[in-house]
Sequence to fold (361 residues):
Amino acid sequence: MGDRLAGSPGQRSVESAQNPAGRANTVKYAVIGAGAMGYRYGVLLQEKAGLSVDFIDTWTPNLDAVHAQHGVYVSRDHENRHLVPIRLCTPEEYTGDPDVWIVFVKQMQLAGVLKRCAHLFRPGQYVFSAMNGMGHVEKLQEYFADDHLVAGTAMIATVLNGPGDVDFIGASGAGHMHMVNRTEKPDATTRAMVEDFTAANLNPVLTENFMGTLMAKVVFNSVVNTLCTMFGVTMGEFATYPGAQDMSRMLLDEAYDACERDGIQLIETRQECVESVDFVSRVGNPLHYPSMYQDFSHGRPTEVDYINGYIARLGRKHDYICRLHEFVTHQMHLAEAMRDLKAAGTVEQEDPARMGAQQAA
Ligand SMILES: CC(C)(CO)[C@@H](O)C(=O)[O-]
Fold:
């Protein structure tokens, strides 16, 4: 274990020692992006796997809250809210040299955050990210070589209640994730990460199909994230609609057609994906509002361009027009635009009295 990060040029050697959880493992992690998923990965690696984890963030209210309360408040399914001490600072304040960076930043903020962290990146360090959507890999490649880049997906629901306050949705050990090397060739460090993520109860599955793994999650999110957000419903509420599976199948078929034209072999069949959307919505996370809804309801831009929009662009690349995904992308942007107009007071709020008068007329 001690030499698992040593070996090839530019790689580092990590001393073998027992960590507090009694495992022979001294990999140091640092999380960039202390939001919902960043907290979930970092806190679980720290608490369950007993590993050293630092957190870096750029959102001042989050930094202020964590410093004032000396940690992050963690709940599970809205219960058992307790304080977990963590080390959190800005990229400019950070002086550590982790072995593996874990990156969870919103797609549209990633380039700026990586630029602020650039002085911290050193040869030999690995990067891992399981962000929603597609667009992050190219940005990470600007700083990390392909043989030090591990991507992934997380079927793990988490909500940031506010600065320094996170809610892990689902029972301990519920949910799972996939990991895949950019080179599609797992190495010793990747296997060590799998071991750490397993100890952290994140249930990782290692694959050797880069695009097929990442796109399987993008197509999943292209259904539940976008539809739940547009209609302001939980995943469970969506699944109760009798036409939910038909809608899933329509969006998924088009997404699979685009992927196939690009030579991407998804790790799930179309039918498995329809069933996965249904199962995760109905059984896995019925009470969860997907992360896109959390952005939308807090007045932030959504990641739709990196999910449905990405699928649509993939199709266009092969002269295949994903009409549903293009339309849904527009609808989501329309919803964002109308939300912003209402917030700015330039669109009349619904007036029940006026509505009644119109109906009577
Ligand atoms: C839908 C989801 C819960 C799947 O893990 C997650 O991707 C999310 O909230 O965006």
